[in-house]
Amino acid sequence: MERFFLYDDVEDTKTRFVSFTGKTQRYDLAILQSSRFFGKVLVLDIQFGRFAIIGPDDVEEPGYLEHAYNRTEEEAADLREYLTELLG
Prior knowledge:
alpha+beta; 4-stranded antiparallel β-sheet
């Protein structure tokens, strides 16, 4: 079978695993840093199987984390607080 690849690259990444408790629940995250994301990081929510490429501007965008991670406003506030510290 013939395939047409747009790219097939291998890149070293820095991965950080973080687990913390917020006001309403526990968060288990994997945070990947790569030059591919133009200064942003790939944040994986391990428990819920959701991920997004996030930069400081995304954290401040109203409703972004709620949508990306399918979280309530209160749950996203805990995540927003941590990501603001991480990316700041």
